[in-house]
Amino acid sequence: MWVPPNPQPSRLPLRRPVGGRVVGGAALGLAAHLDQPPAMVRWAFVGLTPLAGLGLALYVFLWVTVPTGDPATAGGDERPAALSRLARSQGLGAERLRRVPVTDIATALVLLAGAAVLVAVRTGAHIDTTWVVPLVLLLAGTTLAWSQLDAAQRGRMRSRTGGRTPVSVLRLVGGLVLAGIGVLLLVAQETEPAALLQVTIAAVAVLAGVALVMAPWWLRLVRELGDERAARAREAERADIAAHLHDSVLQTLALIRARAADDPTEVARMARAQERELREWLYDDRPAPGTSVAAALRAIVAEVEDSRSGPTGEPVAVDTVVVGDRAPDAQTEALLQATREALVNAVVHGRPPVSLYLEVGEETVEVFVRDRGEGFDVESIPSDRFGVRESIMGRVRRRGGDATVQCKKGRGTEVHLCVPVLDSAARPQKETQR
Amino acid sequence: MSPVDVVLVDDHLMFRTGVRASLDDRVNVVGEAASVDDAVRVVRELRPPVVLLDVHLPGGDGGGGAEVIRTCADLLGETRFLALSVSDAAEDVVAVIRAGARGYVTKAISGADLSDAVQRVASGDAVFSPRLAGFVLDSFGTSAGDVAIADDEMDRLSAREREVMRLIARGYSYREVAGELFISIKTVETHVSAVLRKLQLSSRHELTRWAAARRLL
Fold first, then answer.
1. For testing the chain A interface, which of B92, B168, B170 should be mutated: the one with the most A CBs within 10 Å?
2. Rounded mean pLDDT of chain B?
3. Which residues of B touch A370 (CB under 8 A)?
């Protein structure tokens, strides 16, 4: 498949870098975004400031709205996961960003301002409250509303799962009300209450109109954002799984290539183990550990396949079929232990192919372990031998179950294990079979 | 018995070569195809008695092996499809079986067993791997209690069919099943074919849900 050479975005996103700042990093970030020398951008800000404070206003606006971060890293983040490397690179994690304690500084400034006003009043300076109060209200409201920008970034993990929090809504509404009152007081200084009411109604009406017009656009924006987040999460998960698989498959292939000449048995075993793992990732819904007898059985099969060999030293694959599933309990635990012993017996002493069948029924859980060997006579096993008799039969019988061994000439050996189910309430959904 | 002509459909050249080499002289590979469109063309042209069909195939409308069978539905009388896949996911199995395949074996099967299966399909029988049998038991229910819920004949297994399925799931060959149940191989084959029919026509909700998810209905 042809892959485009370097899908780097042509322009870095706007971020305020942490290192190399003079004031707030806004000029530096803008310079990186526009691909211009930082000094030039800085001087542009300074040069624009005499024009009614335009440069300063722009700078403050950027400072407040542009998030902190490394533009280059953020650019990398914006590439779709399908185009990026699947395996995550090691040791290149984002270093922890140093945060300026904005809140603390703002509080200190407000307190200082308050103190200055108090001192001014005490020393007899005349302060026109008709201007100060609305201004303070307006400032407070704006700060409250803007503060959620920062909080939204901090709580991004939270909002990704839940959406908005009551606190953020409260902040927004409180900020709007405060700022609204501030603006009204500021604009309508000399008017009478009746006219003020009229002005208020008119303002609210205009705002409502604007909201009505903007609503569909805003809704679409929100929806698209949600969709994109979901898609990104899915993509990241897929990439994670793929990375895991590629990693293990590549490793096994390398091992196989290294040992193909001198150890065919080991190669076959590795190939089988890899196949099992790949199969599990591709075709199985992986249940949470400790919730599925089927998964526990598969783990046992994997362990036996990996650690035991047939009579002539070759690895033996166990053909496993599972019907139904349930949560494990003491009964199934005993059954699985006995199954393991029977399986080891079939692999080591029997003849392949080895078949394993587990059926979870309403009243019983049954296991059949079958190989094509000559089999053995249970009655001829000396009772003092702690082998088949105890490890397989004893285990199951103590749980009120039953174990039989069937050997038929030319038809192999089959061990049948069965334990009763104690509580049928623990039985999960039937669909969890695979 | 004369060798059976088969067409081999798989998108991996390496696998086609491997299968060709492993089949014994009871089977004669007359054609190969690597995609849905290829397969339909080759099958229509050669009209082989048996087609060995991979489940996942490129091309066509993205329906893979099931799409090939559905497109060639008018040939189902003379051409029989045996699905051969590395996947043992339920939805893959259901998709091709319900489209009309006469059996489902996984690619781990040995050459001799595969030749057996081809012969069996050519003579009109169904081929069930242990896993397919296990899947049937899982979706039709293992206990007799299920009979009461299912009122349609197609939606339940008879006691004998269930017994046969359990033995196949335990790794028994048709011959061994016959010996175990004291019936003839022919009877075993009849039971298996009946189960295949039920699998194709049943309206049990597990099956229909899988089928619906793959837009097969």
1. B170
2. 82
3. 170-171
Are residues B90 and B159 located together in one domain of the fold?
no
Tokens of B108: 């781990």
Lowest mean pLDDT among A87-91, A106-110, A331-335, B162-166: A87-91
- Give the residue numbers spanning the domain of B179: 130-217
Assess A428–B contact: CB distance below 8 Å, yes or no. no
ipTM: 0.82
Contact A58, A48 (CB under 8 A): yes
Compute the distance between CA of residue B101 and CA of residue B93 in angstroms, rounded to an integer: 10
Q: What SS3 state is found at B166?
A: helix
Interchain contact, A321 vs B133, CB within 8 Å: yes
Q: Please tell me whether residues B167 and B111 are part of one structural domain.
A: no
Cβ contact A387:A308 at 8 Å: no
Buried b / exposed e over A240-258, threshold 16 CB at 10 Å, is: eeeeebeeeeeebeeebee
Please identify, among B124, B158, B183, the residue that sits at the C-terminal boundary of a domain: B124
Say yes or no: B171 contacts chain A, CB-CB below 8 A: yes
| Residue indicated by tokens 């999460």 | A233
Domain end marker among B124, B151, B173: B124
Check if A283 contacts B (Cβ < 8 Å).
yes
Give dist(CA A138, CA A187) in Å, integer: 12
Q: Which amino acid is at A113?
A: A
**Which of B138, B164, B174, B177 to mutate to probe the A interface, most A CBs <10 Å?**
B138
DSSP alpha helices (H): ranges in chain B? Answer: 13-22, 36-46, 64-71, 90-99, 111-122, 130-140, 146-149, 159-169, 174-181, 185-201, 205-213
CB-CB under 8 Å, B143 with A361: yes
> Would you call A321 and B131 a contact, using CB atoms and an 8 Å cutoff?
yes
Residues of A with Cβ-Cβ distance to B171 under 8 angstroms: 319, 353, 355, 357, 370
Q: Could you tell me the residue ranges of all domains in chain A?
A: 1-79, 285-433
Residues of chain A in contact with residue B108, where contact means CB-CB under 8 angstroms, are 317
**Between residues A262 and B101, the one the model is more confident about:** B101
Instruction: Give A392's DSSP letter.
Output: I
| Secondary structure tally for chain A: helices H, strands E | 14, 5
Give the CA radius of gyration of chain B. Answer: 17
Superfamily of domain A285-433: Histidine kinase-like ATPase, C-terminal domain (3.30.565.10)
